[in-house]
Amino acid sequence: MVNGASNIAKSVVRGLTASGAYRKVRLLDFRPYKTSVYAFQREMAAKGVIVEKHQANSGSSLDIALEGASKVVYFTHNYTSMTSDKNSFLLGTAKLAKKHGVSSITAVCPVEHDLAYSENMEKNWI
Fold this sequence. Notes:
With 126 residues, this protein is α/β, with parallel strands linked by helices. It has a single domain (7-108), classed as Rossmann fold (3-Layer(aba) Sandwich), CATH 3.40.50. Helix content is 39%, strand content 17%. The chain contains four helices and four strands; from the N terminus they run H-E-H-E-H-E-H-E. The strands form two sheets. The protein has a two-stranded parallel ribbon. Helix 2 links the parallel strand 1 and strand 2. Helix 3 packs across helix 4 (83-99).
């Protein structure tokens, strides 16, 4: 999980690991040492899932952290903010995933509902 410390990312991991198909998750993030991530590690450990934390705040640290990964799920927070930077990081992640022989990469780029708006008031954001 790249950018895996967000609540959305942690919820997806809970869903993916619930079936027992995944027993080990690598959480890559700019700030993987937050209190909420430690709590998440303990929660997952109680369910038999190992969550490894890796700081990924540069291309080289991301390269090292992706080594040996088989599948990558990339999350971004509030995709509409600083989109060009987020696209660059996503492209870099995809290139490194290819370099390491990752079999699949999935990007999850949500728009926060409180920031979403439309001139079409009938637009349903949910």
